[in-house]
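Explain this fold:

***
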Amino acid sequence: MIFLMTNPLLGPLVYLDGAGQPIVVINTLEVAVDLLDRKAGVTSDRPHIIVPDMMTGGLFTPFVGHNEIWRRMRKATQESLRTGTTQFNKAAQYRDSIQLALDMLRDPVNWYGHCKQAVASTIMQVTYGKSPPEWKYKENVANFHEFVDGITRAAMPGAHYVEIAPWMSLIPSRAQDFFVKHSKIFRSIYEDTRMSLDLGDHSLSLARTFIEDGDKHGLSQEEAYWLAAAALYVCPSILLWMMAMILFPETQRRAHEEIDRVVGRDRLPTMEDCDNLPYIQAMVKESIRWRPIDPIGLPRRASEDIYYKGYLIPKRTTMIANVWAMHRDARSYGPDAHLFNPARFIDEGTGKLKPGPAGTKEESHVTFGFGRRICPGRHVAVSMLQMQMTTVLWAMKIEGVMNEKGEHAPINVDGCIDDGLVVRPVPFAAKLTARSQKALAMIEKGTVDM
């Protein structure tokens, strides 16, 4: 698969035979838009990947086939994300961004863990409406990481022998234990939200909207538990952005200049500032494009024969979008597509954002997917990254660590921890310095005032 991702000589469509299962790898943005957007009616299904299905009871929205259960869940999610949860999203993101900056400055050695914890905290708050003092914070964050890591490893095509020999699904497996364990966890947190609502706590959250509107969407209790859990499947690129800040310091300098000009040094950034920070917005887009965390996305399945430019893609063919190759295509992103360069999304004449490549819509990249399967929580992920990046850069300077020779310790930009569908950078050291004592004091006061 690495060969397919990185070989520039391969054509727009590559056919593979996976033990009798036809697989088509889509390598260009044009073909992906044609097949996965414009033909979404016949390319929105998922292949039946046995182990993830066992791990989630067939109820985890990103993995569910293009059927009536998926349609109910998708509609409920879209309507919930259009309601007042937006305001709660902003409050949770603001609090966690300030806490992240303080944690990183107080304990810079463990910045990697602080970033992962901040993402988990925000997503859990947006999903269930629980702020850290009100619940078993560390336990639930640990469960969050165990769940996300488990399903992303299992969903990698060919990750388990049972995908090749389906009869092996008859053998009791740890996948079923995983389902039982996490069903209990999701049920417990969801019912805690219901109990809080009954006691008069009307904190906004996705779970609250599912509780109040579940009957309207025809959701069973178990579907509602797992639908809320689907919101956890968001993995923003803050870790890769940290790497970029060290490797491409000129982009950090430009971001500092924009933040200082718009926000100033006498107050903390707010969510409202993000709309006036086009370079930060471009930096978010570029962080997601430069090193996509899910370089081949979740596979699709053709629900009927597809004829495309003289090729036949048979019914039940597994279709894989090579997001990595699309984001490295010089025709879409220029000859420096392999570099981190937020300015590619800026109109240097006006200083405003400019449209991305054709077919990428407002995102300017395709990490969030295509067509009917595009990530419904993408706006939450983007706003979370904008607030985190803005607050961290307002508060500190990010540099590489010097070795004993007085040289910057090298960072393996291509090294990664392969968690199946999701890849993360290998942990690396960073030097984090408050931009001023006043900035540190304001961040400390900001966490007290929350």
About this structure: Residues 290 and 320 are 19 Å apart (CA to CA).
